[in-house]
Specification:
By secondary structure, the protein is α/β, with parallel strands linked by helices. 35% of the residues lie in helices and 14% in strands. A 5-stranded parallel beta sheet has the order 7-6-5-8-9. It has a 4-stranded parallel beta sheet with strand order 2-1-3-4.
Amino acid sequence: MLLSNTKPASLSKRHILGIEGMPVHEMMGLLARASEFADHPKETFHDCLRGRTIVNLFYENSTRTRVSFEVAGKRLGASILNISVAGSSVKKGETLIDTATTLNAMHPDILVVRHNASGAPALLSQHIDAAIINAGDGRHEHPTQALLDALTIQRKFGQIAGLKIAICGDITNSRVARSNLLLLGSLGAELRFVSPSTLLPSAFDDMGVDCYTDLEAGIENCDIVMMLRLQQERMEGREVPSQHEYFHFFGLNAEKLHRAAPNAFVMHPGPMNRGVEIDSQIADDKLKSLIQTQVELGVAARMACLEAVAQHL
């Protein structure tokens, strides 16, 4: 099947390394194309990436993102290779550049990279011929997550401009928060960061976002309340006293959600820590939660990204 009414999204660069620096018209093009793919969730589009090879190189575990890219690639007709770092030469001491050189010799077309070090995908892009898509790098960015979040909001509300969106939780360690700030802010949303002061970096003060250290005040009259998990793996252990106390002050439940707009929706990039940053009643509420919609639309958003970078091959 082919989508005949529009063309693939156009990108000025051959890689998707982050939202920062991406022109607004390119963001809108990716969202428009992703929305078309979302309208055909069970269709395959074999002519789009037929004969292309995609390598998923994940140095960090992520079931949602890896599987989402794999499904997206297969729906576009590509061959997919998943590399498990745990069983690769990386565990034997191979450097990132050596891995890039090895992969480059096998001539993949697209390399999807998730790494615990900020800037790793950008570094790889300088040493490999394949197009690179950043699937999350350290505390830096997670561009495809921001795109699927924007797609979810756009399809629910019909627009993004003018919406009040609160991003709540571990802001300091969240690449999702950074990418969403750049993308949703560029598309006209009014953004707020809500977090304990120990997890709210001062660097965001100059980026045009209001910051709150009280959850109920921060989500007041917001249309979207996006919760983030505590990223214990990036913490030094002193940021929050306990998970129980964190939930008491910053965990979202039905009572606190009443402070948001009457028709507010809840989002979460996953994985969720139930009873820590979000109550199960809210997470599973089909009338309020968009969390499963985010997972579903993640495939469409990544299809649009894969197709777009393939135009440069």
